[in-house]
């Protein structure tokens, strides 16, 4: 297992983490890469890293978060049940094939971290089943 951190700057934002994931792969290895984020208010997805679309991911998440609830979950004065629920629905892991030490993604695909309750420092774990 390899690990890295991502510092998010906004309460809700999309961050491309493809490069730091790829940097943790060994040359020549073939298998399946699982990327996992051990946080309950963040999601991982495979999508396109295009400026307007990255903003759209964040805007859609903010709209979903703002238009759900009210919920009863409050911890230390923080009512963030919407972020927990959206993370649970979206998922906290992705799987990507690896061929010869490189991620096998489509032309427009990237691995994206969707922050739902930031800004925060997030841990991302990379596993390779070769």
Count of β-strands: 8
Secondary structure class reads: alpha+beta
Determine the N-to-C terminus distance. 12 Å
Largest sheet: 5 strands, antiparallel
List SSEs in N-to-C order.
EEHEEHHEEEE
Element layout with pairings:
Elements: E1 2-7, E2 13-16, H1 18-22, E3 31-36, E4 42-47, H2 51-66, H3 81-90, E5 93-99, E6 102-103, E7 110-115, E8 121-129
Antiparallel strand pairs: 1-8, 2-7, 3-5, 3-8, 4-7, 5-6
Can you walk me through this structure?
The protein contains three helices and eight strands; from the N terminus they run E-E-H-E-E-H-H-E-E-E-E. With 130 residues, the chain is α+β, with helices and mostly antiparallel strands. The two termini are 12 Å apart. The strands form two sheets. The protein has a five-stranded antiparallel sheet with strand order 1-8-3-5-6. Helices cover 24% and strands 35% of the residues. The chain is elongated. The chain has one domain (2-129): Sandwich (Jelly Rolls), CATH 2.60.120.460. A hairpin with a 2-residue loop joins strand 5 and strand 6. The longest helix has 16 residues, at 51-66.
Summarize the structure.
The chain has 3 helices and 8 strands. With 130 residues, it is an alpha+beta fold. The chain has a single domain (2-129), classed as YjbQ-like (Jelly Rolls), CATH 2.60.120.460.
Features:
130 residues, alpha+beta, Jelly Rolls, five-stranded antiparallel β-sheet, three-stranded antiparallel β-sheet, 3 helices, 8 strands, 35% strand, elongated
């Amino acid at each position: 297992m390899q690990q890295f951190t991502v510092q998010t700057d906004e309460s809700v934002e999309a961050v491309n983490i493809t490069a730091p994931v790829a940097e943790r792969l060994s040359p020549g290895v073939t298998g399946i890469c699982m990327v996992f984020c051990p946080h309950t208010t963040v999601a991982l997805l495979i999508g396109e890293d295009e400026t307007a679309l990255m903003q759209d991911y964040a805007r859609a998440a903010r709209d979903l978060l703002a238009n759900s609830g009210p919920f009863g979950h409050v911890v230390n004065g923080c009512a963030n049940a919407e972020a927990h629920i959206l993370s649970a629905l979206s998922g906290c892991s992705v799987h990507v094939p690896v061929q010869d030490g490189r991620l096998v993604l489509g032309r427009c695909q990237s691995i994206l971290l969707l922050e739902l309750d930031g800004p925060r420092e997030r841990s991302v774990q990379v596993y390779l089943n070769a």
